[in-house]
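Can you give me the bound-state structure? Components:
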Amino acid sequence: MKIKTHLLTAAAAAIAGTLFLSGCDKPATPAPTEAPAEAAATPEATATPEAPTPEAAAPAAAAPVTNDEPKELNLFCWSEYVPQTVIDAFTAKTGIKVNVQNYASNEEMLQKLLSGGGQYDLLQPSEYIVEAMIKEDMLMPLDQSLIPNLKNLAPEFRALDFDPNNKFSVPWMAGTVGIVINVEQVTDPITGFADVFQEKYKGKIVVLDDAREIVSWAMATNGIPMNDITDENIEKIRPTLQAWLPLVKVYDSDSPKTAMLNGDVALGIVWSGEGALLLDQEPDKFKWVLPKEGTHLFVDSLVVPKTAKHPKNAEMFINFILEPEISAMISADFPYLNPNVEGRKLLSPEQLANVASFPPSEVVAELQTFKDIGEQSSVVDDLITTIKVE
Amino acid sequence: MAASATATPAPSAAFERKPGLGAWVFMAPLLLWLLLFVVVPTGMLIMTSFVERDSLGRLVYNFTWENYIRAFDWKWLKILLVSIWYAFLTTVICMVVGYPVAYFIGRSPDRFRTLLITLVMIPFWTSFLIRTYAWIAILSRDGLLNSFLISASIIPAPIGMMYTPFAIVLGLVYTYLPFMILPIYTSVERMDGAMIEAAYDLGAGPVRAFSKVIIPLTRPGIVAGALLVFVPSVAMFAITTLMGGGSNPTIGEIIQKQFTSARNMPFGAALGTLLLVLFCVALWATRARGRDDAD
Amino acid sequence: MRSHMEASAPTGLGNSAARWRWPSGPRLQRLLFGSWSLAVFAFLYIPIIILVVFSFNESRLNVQWVGFTTQWYKELFENAVLIKAFKNSVIVAVGATVLSTVLGTIGAWMMYRYRFPMRNALNLLIFVPMVMPEILMGVSLLILFVNMHLQLGYLTMIIAHTTFCFPFVLVGVQARLEGIDPFLEEAAMDLGATPIQAFWKVIVPYLMPAIVAGALMAFTLSFDEYIVSLFTTGPDSQTLPLKVYGMARKGLDPQLNALSALFVLGTIALVLFSQLTKKRT
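Here's the bound-state model for the whole set.
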């Protein structure tokens, strides 16, 4: 999926929410006695279904359910990425009304934000946009005392390159990019990009319509670190791309599974969520493989923009979604890599067995994430367009 | 006969008055609207095409020609020509397919006309995405059309119809057909039956009556329809990407990408401005020629 | 001479003669055109039929038929978010349609009737919203609204939608104006009408098919608009395309099919009812 899109939408949502909440005071560090006192007192805190592990239940109640902000939250997120059930549960628990605005691409969100539109409290950017936003000082540091559920996250998600210690962002869902194969049409073993881009599969391949992604695969195949986007390296991978792109039938970042399901293509390099959906839909027909040349991890996170008007509510929401039961609800709707270890314990064996959703954790720990490449985005985009048109 | 739909039709010179105060008052809303919501944004667009941007994509207000220099590259021209070609093909097909329908509806009894013309539009009140996915379900390799053709023994194996130029044109024609039918209908509807009857009375066969009388009478509608199909479809990208697979990007898609993944708003604005300029030139050229015809 | 030729009213008003066969012309022509139109209607409605069928499909992904179910309809009625989005789409579309129709019709008439200075520039400007790629329009309107300190919401969306819808109305009405009897208005005024009355009572009825056609086009364009809406919406005015466009990732929810099916069938029923109960003219 387009993480950039999440970022854009999240950014725009944040800005919108921020403008909205202009009546509010800037939150001061909450009084230290607030948290445990609230935990003991409020019965609603324990109203959520019991978690199997007792340790999870008590700290989940530690976040205060009341603060001095108006009971409103402006969320700008990817369409359907935040299940309505989760939003309703949050409102039921805290009485905070959530205004949801959606976007379908990270960049759209960023563009709306940069053009001055909307005030949001929460955005849902992808990792490289989070990085860019941190660099540009657009995000508010999170008050982690309001988010005790951070401990539910798997350790590799608490030490991410672009935001160590979750100073500004909390991972929502993660994933990889890999190869999905229609085993009825493809009988040869496929282990990596080189196997996919063979003449015999010409016109039978679907790939993501994401210039950066495609370039990263070419770089991995040529042994170049994927964030090293220099003019030199671009020239090195040009021949690879020139050989690859004419073989592609469909470029689709939104729903590559459609082409796979309809039989129009036999192989695809797609988001892990798409792969997981295909495996769920027809487990005997599709196979998922992580390319041996290497892949990367993408992480969509919740962030709070500096201009947020209800940051405490935002942090409350973040804490809420880190509760194991809520995390399981999100996974039920989206078979991506759930960074919440406690949440994973609540998933069904089928969900956990889906190799597209949950690659082995040693693999995940090794994966790199995309760094923000700024102006090089244009160069990369240009490269792919040029080769497409040749 | 006035030349094109875009030229203000030219009745006798004595008829066209100089606008008095009242006329200005009534014209004011349109003028203000144009000024505020068309001229100003266009100005912003042009201005954006002359500035730079930073790594996040925000505008940096330093004057530069670099966006235009970059735009004058053969590959953009190629993409533009492809887009224009698709738009042209779509317009012609819509004209041929849509005219008979517009004629039929326009000559139906009064009480059916509005019904029929609304029925033409109603399918487009569904979400664009599900309509497109319905077409994908029809045209794909494992889809309905192939299944039908195979079970009827018309073809031995499925044909790949999706993600081809055929699919693109189909998608475009489907989307824009109503915008051809409706304007032609309004011209057909005002045709005086007397003139057509006269043509037949004077011995013209149906084909001659059509080509020599009916089509010229409905020319304003045809031209309006052609404009309302051709102009928007040049910049269209959503359908071409979904139906065509994206391996042959259109100019609309390129501009879209500049604003999103390429984070290069100024370049996108430059391409957009060039598109506008191109269009203005074309419009001026056709109207100038049209005016010559009328003289 | 045929009697209805003498019975014709001044040529500008077209179909005054009531005694036409349907449609006029040789029978073969009628048959040909009729069956062609039927085929085209079938073409227009095939995807609609499919999406209605899929609204009863048991699978969530709109790809293969799995089994019959009405669960999506049930879920739709409980889906307050989707229903609100739909309502917003209708509100914005109706607003934009009304404004576009007014602007387009009056504008076209004024430009036809009076020789305004810079008429050529005006004609050009009218086409600009049609040529300009939507994302450019969306972003520039957003920047404009922000600078005007307008709250993003229904108003900004209606303004934005009207801006790209009214050219369609205007061009359509202009086409209908071409060849109108230039003395129609004068005749009315000779009978004592003011220019405004003449416009309202004589010109507008003449223009009605073009106005209706323009309104239909405007509504359609507005209802399905995504990009411009994205940039000009506020938190409360999310329209259907905004909710729907990201859905492709998870697979389009068949509730959407159900919604569209209901809307289509509903409007068809409404139009059928209103038209067929009209008295024969």
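A couple of observations. Residues 182 and 202 of chain A are 15 Å apart (CA to CA). The interface with chain C takes residues 1, 16-17, 20, 74, 78-81, 84, 99-104, 108, 111-112, 115-118, 254-255, 257-258, 261-262, 273-274, 277, 281, 333-334 of chain A (CB under 8 Å).
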